[in-house]
Design brief:
- The complex is a heterodimer.
- Chain A is 31% helix and 24% strand.
- Chain A has 22 helices and 40 strands.
- In chain A, the strands form 14 sheets. Chain A has a 5-stranded parallel sheet with strand order 10-7-6-18-31. Chain A has a 5-stranded parallel sheet with strand order 20-27-21-22-23.
- The two termini of chain A are 25 Å apart.
- Chain B is an alpha+beta fold.
- A two-stranded antiparallel sheet of chain B has the order 1-4.
- Chain B is elongated, with a radius of gyration of 16 Å.
- Chain B starts with 19 loop residues before the first strand and ends with a strand.
- The chains are: A alpha/beta, B alpha+beta.
- Chains A and B meet through loops of A and loops of B.
Chain lengths: 801, 88
């Protein structure tokens, strides 16, 4: 489209008094009307209202507008609204641009109408400059394979697999252990209803085992994942069981097997043989041989007892590991959690004192099918304890003794356990030592009350230390009752440590295979904590159960059904559109250096050595733009965030009074959202900052920063998500690398490197953003005209100003 | 399930294995040492005594450790060792 054809309409929104209260919207509209290519500028009370939307549609037709700029709230709020308006008026939605004059202007400069108005003008000018360069874009459609992979066969994985399979999709359920069932299979009863855990789980397990749409792969691990939303290629390593499916689970092999080891399922409280089944209800019921324990190693047949005992001749030592390749459209991560190992806390003596047990050991001991046949016995003398103590928050809610988060299930689990003891042995004296009791769920408080009514004593204040009486093996708990402000010293027969949940040891492997991100706690991070709680940031991947955060059975099942529904939506549609913010490649300029391939967090770019060019898989692209920032030969740029568009914004900011301004590049997800949050919270900060939004801080090419300095900007801020929290997996590490290189360059040329700042700020850290602007304001004030000129010279060549 | 397994299982005593009775025909042994080398539970060792063939036959270190897999019998080239289940 030739330049003279560009017809921009600008709408300056009052938002009632939200904007008009501190910005002279009329003046901004008048200013906008004079900007190049603008054919129409209006101020309007509520642009997002139906009337406002109709006005835009009418104008598009009447004034033949082919670009629309709305200056109002944050694009994170109403960009979709106005994009739709454009589309309805027959304008490609990528020809719309927004200027954020509410969250990032009127709300943060409430008491300086003049400055706020000037800033709003600048922001509109930037948006108009970008709008003039906008290009229509079509979103590509990617087909979705109508098969799903569920990783992890605990209750969450089971539920997700069943829901998807019942919907009619083929599901592969991969489980690392010999049987599905997970943690729930090991628990005796569930809270708050006291249902028998395995009794309600076992039918679901066997449903999985015989569902025609589910292919169950136990004793198997995902070893490789390639591809992208709708089209994942997964390699699964299926380890040999050494027992064929002909096995009738009669158990004769196990009886004759001479090798024994503690049974993991029973937390080591019972034995198993080298050929075994982890528990009676295991699915599949086929036995398995533990090759680490079996005598027949390295192909040498030392012992043949099991082979001789097996009537069906199901034992086969020649089985080999197989790698199975699957093609799936969606993946549900239901890998669960580990339990905290309390032996790292010497004060509780776990591992030294026989009668200190974990809550998981308790579950096995109280379970009728467990090693003690449901008699709660203490390990030292196998007698039924008369006084039992529960210690809460073992490994939870403490930076000193484990993890800082609340493990969510332990309070209710303990309350349930205390009632189970009372049910069988009502005379037992039970004390629960706690920090806070969190009985927040449906029916939880009732259970808590019931426990109190039945005489369970709750004492606030964890014991500082446990001592063992050498003779009786009883345990002395010493600590402070923080409600009574009194020290206590009490003796118990048995102490149960209510251990917390922690991320799986191999969570990092899954994270790497699926390019996921994790929170500081180590659990997988969802795309949005409120509105997309089961989606991963990577398209086509969903979370269920404790992999995402500690949760109880009900929440795991709920989340699993949600994840199945989310995956089902994609597969039902059969295709997905990818936002048109993917890279654009200029083949003539591409030198096939491969730098973009290295920085792409999604492996969406591959180097074709034969054709000496790179190839982009648009469907796999996350849209961060890091490749475009990395490309040394300007062969790559990002749709809707092109070099020209961003440079036009920089030039608009630095058009006048550049030496008093801060040019800020903020990533959409954290920094820009953080600045929005500062606005929503009405935090006031200096008005000389102008924010340019990119999807990721990784899009910020060094030449943008150089351009800003070359045009005389006083200071530049590059802001992104905290390392590890990047919305694009790890793209912000490249940001850091680039900024460090720029600092070096500034130092070498005698420039004050403080003028370029790098800030990690989360969407919730408005305060952090605001205080950075204050800090930078002082830098701006200290910069001399001489320094500005020197920077202009240093960067003139690279910045091309 | 990566919890640390450190306790003695409650059924450790009940899981009594059949007791072994190891028979070594010392004078048939030619001292190849196969039985010692291949025993998965390391029940045997070379003895100090010298047999009719002038070699050191094996001797039992700990009969309780034997799991009666009878691999020694299988590998012995001279039919000099066999294991029976001990009858009480």
């Amino acid at each position: 489209m030739a330049k003279e054809d560009i017809r921009i309409g600008v709408y300056v929104c009052h938002c009632g008094l939200n904007i008009a209260g501190s910005v002279d919207c009329e003046e901004v509209a008048k200013f906008a009307a004079k900007l190049p290519n603008v054919v129409l500028a209006r101020d309007y009370r509520y642009t997002c209202s139906d009337q406002g939307q109709e006005l835009i549609k009418k104008d598009i037709k009447e004034f033949r507008l082919n670009r629309v700029v709305v200056a109002s709230c944050t694009p994170r709020l109403h960009e979709p609204t106005f994009r739709r308006v454009c589309e309805e008026a027959g304008l490609n939605k990528y020809l719309f641009e927004m200027a954020n004059i509410r969250e990032q202007c009127s709300w943060v400069h409430l008491n300086d109408r003049k400055a706020a108005t000037e800033k709003a003008k600048d922001l509109v000018k930037m948006a108009v400059a970008k709008a003039a360069l906008l290009e229509p874009a079509e979103e590509i459609e990617v087909p979705i394979i109508r098969k799903a992979l569920v990783i992890g066969g605990g209750v969450a994985g089971i539920q997700a697999a069943l829901d998807l399979a019942d919907t009619g999709y083929k599901v592969y359920l991969v489980e690392k252990e010999p049987s599905i069932g997970g943690m729930m299979a090991r628990i005796d009863k569930t809270f708050p209803t006291m249902d028998c855990s395995i009794c309600i789980l076992a039918p679901k397990m066997s449903d999985v085992g015989r569902h025609p749409n589910i292919e169950l792969l136990t004793n198997s691990e995902v070893v490789d994942v390639k591809g992208y939303i709708g089209n994942f290629r997964v390699k699964v390593l299926k380890k040999p069981r050494y027992v064929k499916e002909d096995c009738s689970a009669c158990g004769e092999c196990s009886k004759v097997c001479p090798m024994i080891a503690p049974n993991e399922f029973d937390a080591g409280l019972a034995l198993r043989h080298a050929v075994y089944t982890p528990f009676a209800q295991a699915v599949p019921s086929t036995y398995i041989i533990d090759m680490n324990l079996c005598l027949n190693k390295d192909g040498i047949m030392v012992c043949e007892k099991c082979i001789k005992a097996c009537e069906r001749q199901a034992i086969d030592f020649t089985m080999k590991p197989e790698t199975i390749e699957l093609e799936v459209g969606t993946i549900i991560v239901a890998t669960g959690a580990d339990v905290f190992d309390p032996s790292t806390l010497p004060q509780y003596g776990y591992g030294r004192y026989l009668n200190v047990i974990t809550s998981l050991e308790f579950e096995r001991l109280i379970n009728a099918g467990g090693p003690s046949g449901g008699r709660l016995i203490r390990p030292s003398d196998l007698k039924i304890p008369k006084r039992v103590a529960f210690i809460q928050c073992v490994g939870s809610r403490s930076s000193k003794t484990g993890r800082t988060y609340c493990s969510n299930v332990c309070c209710m689990n303990t309350i349930k356990d205390s009632l189970l003891i009372k049910e069988h042995w009502p005379e037992t004296e039970i004390y629960v030592f706690y920090v806070d009791i969190r009985a927040y769920g449906k029916g939880f408080e009732d259970l808590y009350k019931r426990a109190k009514n039945e005489g369970v004593k709750f004492i606030r204040g964890l014991p500082a230390e446990i001592f063992e009486d050498r003779k009786t093996r009883n345990l002395w708990l010493i600590g402070e009752n923080t409600l009574l402000k009194e020290p206590y010293k009490m003796s118990f027969d048995l102490v149960v440590l209510s251990v917390g949940l922690e991320p799986r040891k191999d969570a990092e492997l899954i994270q790497r295979l699926l390019t996921l991100s994790r929170t500081q706690d180590g659990f997988f991070m969802e795309a949005h904590p409120k509105l997309r709680p089961v989606d991963a940031a990577t398209g086509g991947i969903f979370f269920a159960g404790c992999a995402e955060a500690p949760k109880d059975i009900k929440d795991s099942v709920t989340q699993a059904s949600a994840a199945a529904a989310r995956a089902g939506i994609l597969m039902a549609k059969g295709k997905v559109t990818v936002e048109a913010i993917t890279p654009i490649l200029d083949l003539e300029k591409c030198k096939a250096c491969g730098l973009c391939v290295k920085v792409c967090p999604y492996n969406a770019i591959t180097l074709n050595k034969e054709l000496k060019r790179v190839e982009i898989v648009e469907a796999a692209c996350g849209g961060c733009g890091t490749c475009a920032a990395e490309c040394p030969s300007d062969a790559l740029t990002q749709n809707h965030f092109t070099d020209e568009q961003i440079i036009a914004q920089i030039d608009a900011v630095t058009g006048q009074d550049a030496d008093k301004k801060i040019v800020a590049f903020c990533c959409n997800w954290c920094a820009y959202a953080g600045a929005d949050f500062a606005g929503v919270s009405r935090m006031q900060y200096p008005h000389n900052v102008r924010i340019i939004r990119t999807m990721c801080s990784g899009r910020v090419a060094p030449k943008f920063v150089e351009r800003a300095f070359a045009r005389g900007a006083a200071a530049v801020l590059v802001a992104g998500c905290h390392p590890g929290d990047c919305h694009y997996i790890n793209a912000n590490y490249h940001t850091q690398r680039r900024v460090e290189r720029l600092w070096k360059k500034m130092e070498q040329n005698g420039l004050n490197k403080e003028r370029l700042q790098l800030l990690w700020v989360s969407a919730a850290e408005g305060e952090r953003f605001a205080s950075k602007i204050y800090e930078m304001q002082r830098i701006v004030e200290s910069v001399t005209p001489d320094e500005i000129e020197r920077a202009k010279k240093v960067f003139a060549k690279a910045g091309g100003a | 399930m990566p919890e640390r397994l450190w306790r003695t299982p409650l059924d450790a005593e009940k899981a009594a294995r059949p007791k072994a009775e190891i028979h070594i025909l010392k004078d048939q042994c030619k001292g190849c040492g196969f039985c010692i080398q291949y025993c998965p539970k390391k029940v045997l060792e070379e003895s100090d005594e010298i047999n009719a063939r002038g070699v050191h036959p094996p001797r039992v270190v700990d009969e309780k450790k034997c799991i009666i897999c009878s691999f020694c019998t299988a590998v012995c080239p001279d039919f000099a060792i066999f294991v029976k289940e001990k009858t009480v």
